[in-house]
Design a protein that fits this description.
This protein is mainly α. The chain is built from 5 helices and 2 strands.
């Protein structure tokens, strides 16, 4: 998206990823193409989880290249170019999904704890000018 401002043109990008379908294969009884899709989603979520934990620990080697999802979200996760990532979590309140709900909430908590130095530095001039 391009937006004209007094200082020039601002370029922004929005990426939306629907990660529905990360349930346990045994419970969904998916087969064929749906099973392959579920397997790919779960694999991408596992790599995303490893990236988030690495960023939280401020590790140097973040495995962005190990899945298409993390390649797509890499700049936002790292805060490069002033990009950011927001996570929307949808839960199933049924007791039989309690373990998956707990895992998703723990992952969201890890994502919330990540603070990108480069993102904070890129926002600092905006915050100073706003006051």
């Amino acid at each position: 998206m391009l937006t004209e401002t007094e200082g020039g043109v601002r370029v922004s990008c929005v990426r939306l990823c629907d990660l529905a379908g990360c349930e346990r294969a045994r419970r969904t009884r998916n087969t064929g193409a749906r099973m392959a899709e579920s397997r790919a989603i779960n694999s991408s979520l596992h790599v995303l989880e490893r990236c988030l934990h690495t960023l939280r620990r401020r590790g140097r080697c973040v495995p962005y290249r190990e899945s298409k999802l993390t390649r797509l979200l890499g700049a936002g996760l790292s805060g490069a170019k002033g990009e950011a990532v927001s996570m929307v979590v949808t839960l199933n309140p049924a007791p039989k999904y309690a373990q998956e709900t707990k895992h998703v909430l723990q992952l969201a908590a890890v994502a919330k704890d990540i603070h990108s130095d480069s993102l904070e530095q890129s926002l600092r001039p905006l915050l100073i000018n706003a006051t």
